[in-house]
Design brief:
Elements (H helix, E strand, L loop, with lengths): L2 E5 L1 H14 L16 E5 L5 E3 L2 E3 L1 H11 L16 H8 L11 H15 L4 H12 L4 E4 L6 E7 L4 E5 H7 L6 E7 L10 H7 L2 E4 L8 H5 L4 H5 L4 E4 L2 E2 L2 E2 L4 H7 L6 H8 L6 E4 L12 E4 L7 H22 L1
Helix pairs in contact: 1-2, 1-12, 2-5, 4-5
Length: 326
């Protein structure tokens, strides 16, 4: 099967590892995977930020490190065996911001990316070059080569202002009530090379349990991507169990756009024009969404076996719905 996965963040990366296992793809033995088309990941770049002259792409890197065996497994982001000497030295010089923790190993990735971008290479080419080292077992494409950044409009008592999503998420832990979430640059962005072709060739599309607003939502916000996806069989895995996110602060993002934090409400937000199937946890087994086939099963990615089983269930549902669609 050829599967496209719009993804971002820790939940998306861990789901992809389960999907790779479910499809029998072993990155350690399959050689160069950067052009393999079994799984194409359309990575969110709305979280990207420039700090200290370096272009940081958190979601692309989290997918790359997780699938390439270099992730800090305990926290789900950043490099394993990381040190923070550069961060400490920057703080000693009084450099700001201090709330974004650049690790030394991670900084090397950002330096390579910044140099290649400065030399004129597009982000898609840079991402492929980085993946040549990590061999993630999937084809990883940024959603766009254009600069798109997610900003959050807040009022913290000092007045109404827009701050970068990373500042809201990391520095403030999404505790500042968000009035709006804006995808700056999205309207004029175009899909990165290979994105629309991968969707056209896909047998199915699976939305992982990523943040539906600022991960999956950012990918869908690039003109042309959602329109291409609605012609495919699309199955989503709910990032909400009960009335709370599986991890992270997606509930704060949903509140900002006026969507209830529930599995059914997220499916309704994504839309029956896009979703054909929706996997929810057994805790939400009574969820019903008009026009969408809802199935329930355990959705906690508690270990590799459980994650693989969730991914397999999503693939099985996609195959079933594809046959009905035909």
């Amino acid at each position: 099967m050829r599967i496209v996965v719009p993804a971002g963040g820790i939940g998306g990366a861990r789901f992809l590892r389960g999907l790779r296992a479910a499809l029998g793809i072993d990155a350690a033995t399959t050689g160069d995977q950067t052009t393999d088309s079994a799984i194409t990941v359309i990575g969110n770049t709305g979280d990207d930020i420039t700090l200290f002259g370096l272009r940081i792409c958190p979601d692309l890197d989290t997918v790359m490190y997780t699938l390439g065996g270099g992730i800090n497994e305990e926290q789900g982001w950043g490099r394993a065996d990381e040190t923070f000497t550069v961060k400490e030295e920057l703080a000693a010089y009084g450099m700001r911001p201090t709330w974004f923790g650049l690790g030394d190993r991670d900084t090397a990735t950002h330096i390579v990316r910044a140099q290649m971008l400065a030399a004129g290479y597009p982000l898609s080419a840079v991402t492929q070059a980085l993946c040549d080292r990590w061999k993630p077992g999937v084809r990883l494409l940024p959603m766009t080569d254009d600069q798109v950044e997610t900003h959050v409009v807040v009022d913290d008592g000092e007045g109404r202002r827009a701050i970068h999503f990373q500042e809201w998420w990391i520095r403030h832990r999404a505790a500042l009530p968000a009035e709006r979430i804006i995808s700056v640059g999205a309207e004029s962005a175009t899909p990165a090379p290979g994105v629309l072709a991968a969707i056209a060739e896909a047998d199915a599309v699976i939305l992982p349990p990523s943040n539906p607003v600022v991960s999956v939502g950012s990918v869908l916000g690039v003109p042309g991507i959602r329109e291409a996806l609605v012609d495919k069989t699309v199955v989503g895995v709910s990032p909400i169990i009960g009335d709370a996110p599986v991890r992270g602060m997606a509930d704060a993002c949903l509140t900002a756009i006026g969507v209830e934090t529930s599995a059914a409400a997220v499916a309704e937000h994504l839309g029956s024009d896009l979703l054909d199937g929706w996997l929810v946890d057994d805790a939400d087994a009574d969820a019903k969404v008009e026009g969408i086939e809802v199935r329930s099963r355990p959705l906690y990615m508690s270990d590799p076996a459980a994650t693989e089983a969730i991914a397999r269930a999503a693939v099985d549902l996609a195959v079933e719905l594809s046959e009905v669609r035909e």
